[in-house]
Every structure is written in structure tokens, then in C-alpha cells.
Amino acid sequence: MDNNSLFQKFVAFTTSVHQITSEISKDVKSESLTPLQYKILEYIAVSQPVTLSEISDCMHMSMPNTSRELKKLGEKQLCDKITDPADRRKQGITLSAAGEAMMNEAFQHIAIQFAERMGSVTDEERKEIERALDLLQQKVFY
Amino acid sequence: MDNNSLFQKFVAFTTSVHQITSEISKDVKSESLTPLQYKILEYIAVSQPVTLSEISDCMHMSMPNTSRELKKLGEKQLCDKITDPADRRKQGITLSAAGEAMMNEAFQHIAIQFAERMGSVTDEERKEIERALDLLQQKVFY
DNA sequence: CGATTTACTTATCAAATGATAATTAAAGAG
DNA sequence: CTCTTTAATTATCATTTGATAAGTAAATCG
């Protein structure tokens, strides 16, 4: 059962990834944002412009709940909705300037934590790590 | 800024890991268990025996809330508490037989999903993947 | 055109989770 | 033996999140 030992490693690995990412982005959550709202902003940031339905699908939440949270984000001036001229039922959602600023700051903060963690890594190791990330992303986490 | 491109990869990678693990373990959640309760059981499963304080620390939840959830898990007969004879304030928490059974089934299910995903991977690739997992766990997600 | 479907909204309710204060019992310090 | 600290519990409340029913407006179908 070689496959089984690989699975063990997979489980241990994903557990570590969850733990480390949560640690790294622990105090990123701007007050005034719930965890869910932060995650939605994160998703918008990397996928914008995006529709409500897409958010609903990708984040596994119902349309009504998605609508509610997005309304709150809109009220907080963190994202903009633009009605799609080609299909006026759809709304293209993007980060507002304030939203971009907030997310930039958040990513900045995460980047610093990451840099600290990577601190004493040689160039050679850095390349190895990069190759390993590519490999796993391609063969396992696609 | 070579470090920056590595960071980009890191973010993309961790996002993928979260997405794939959530997909793989999507319908594992036994009804009658809340997500939090499932995560706690998962933690107990890999770290048992464990104290309440440890769960509280590692899962970033307050003692009262930890106590509440553990009480529920106890009522559901999924875990046992054994008072530490050396320090009778502490409780060693383990999975009950039923808890073990449930978690075995859950892991089994995840293992199958994983095997499907790994399906057409050669022995050589498998070894590369294993090395990549080891490397990243050691240098990044420690 | 009328009927149906799609994208989204509003309202409401229930459950899950987070936060705090107060309490108990055991252990450790002086 | 007191005093303090530690581990855990109980009770309570607020907030967050999930689920469902019903409604609106635009698009599409026939």
C-alpha cells in the first residue's frame, strides 16, 4: 500500500497548510468585517469582475445569503456593482477603491508574514520550493 | 523581487489547497455533526489523547466554547474524557469506539476521493510528489 | 404576444458560533 | 494552612451564518 503512505502524507500536509495559512492571516481581518465577508472580498479581489451567481457557486453559499452579504459590503463601500449592459439581470461586481486599498493592505500583511517565514532560505532552496509548488499544484491540487 | 513571485505562487497554491480539500471532504460531514464539531473530532483523531486547553489553543476557540462543543460530542458518544491521575484538573480526551469508527469512515471516504484524483500517476511521479510534499512541509508549512 | 427561465432581492427564521461573567475543584506557592 | 493560579464548567447573550419562501425584473422561448 504505497498509495496509503502517500495519503497519510497528503493529510498531514493539508492539515499543516490550513494551520499555517490561518496563522499567517490571523490578524488580517479588518475589524468591521466578518470572516465570511473577508473571504468574499478575497475572492472578488482575485476574480473580479464577478457575478453574484459565481460567488454563490464558488463559495458554496445560497443566492439569498450571497445577496445579503454583498449588500453589506456595498454599504461599507468596499465593492461596486455594475449592471451588465448586455444582460441587465447580471451584475459585475468589483472592488471599490477603498476595497482595493483594504485588500492590498491585507495581502501586504500576509506577504510580510510569509517573508518572515521564508527568512533564511537560500536561492537554491527557493528554486526547489518553487518547483515543488508547481509540481503539486499541477498534479494534485488542480 | 524574486521573493514576490514566490509569494504569488504561495497564495495561488494555498488557495488551491483549500479549494481541493473542501471539495474532497465535502460530503463527509456526517449529519448530526456541525462543521466545527467535525473539525474538532479530526483534531482529536490525529492528536489524541488531548486536553481541553490544547484543543482551545490549537483551534483558536475560547475554553467555554470548547467545553460546550466537547460536551455535545460526549453526549453523542463520540469521545471519552479520562481524568489525568497525575493532575485531576486535566482531562485526556480520546475518540470513543464510535468516534473512531466515524472518523475511519470519513478518512476512508477522503482516501477514495484522493485515490481518484491521483488515479493515473506513475510510480516515478508518485515519488516526486512525495518528495515535494516533504520539502514543502519542512521548509514552508512547518 | 404570453409563458417560462434566469439573476437577483427581500424578509424571516433557525442554528451555529463567538464572547463574557461567574463558579468549581484541584494544584502550587509561600 | 491561606492565597493564587490553572483547568474546566455553566449560564447567558450577541452575532454570524444557513435555509426557505416569496417576489421583482429582465431575458428567452415558442
* CATH uppermost class of the domain at 30-112 in chain A: Mainly Alpha
Under CATH, the topology of the domain at 30-112 in chain A can be stated as: Arc Repressor Mutant, subunit A
Series of secondary-structure elements of chain A, N-terminal to C-terminal: HHHHEEHH
Major beta-sheet overview of chain A: 2 strands, antiparallel
CATH superfamily assignment of the domain at 30-112 in chain A? Winged helix-like DNA-binding domain superfamily/Winged helix DNA-binding domain
Q: Assembly state here?
A: homodimer
Distance between the termini of chain A: 24 Å
Uncertain runs of chain A with pLDDT below 50, 5 residues or more?
Answer: none
Strand content of chain A: 5-15%
Total strands of chain A: the figure is 2
The CATH architecture of the domain at 30-112 in chain A would be Orthogonal Bundle
Helix content of chain A: 55-70%
Report the structural category of chain A: mainly alpha
Give me the Rg of chain A, rounded.
Answer: 19 Å
Per DSSP, the total helix count of chain A is 6
Greatest interface and its participating residue counts = A-B, 46 and 45 residues
Calculate the mean pLDDT score of chain A and round it.
92
The best one-word shape of chain A is globular
Strand order of the largest sheet of chain A: 1-2
Please specify the SSE layout and strand pairing:
Two copies of one chain form a homodimer.
Chain A (H helix, E strand, L loop, with lengths): L1 H23 L10 H13 L4 H7 L4 H13 L3 E5 L7 E5 L1 H22 L4 H17 L3
Antiparallel strand pairs in A: 1-2
Helix pairs in contact in A: 3-4
The structure holds a DNA duplex (30 and 30 nucleotides).
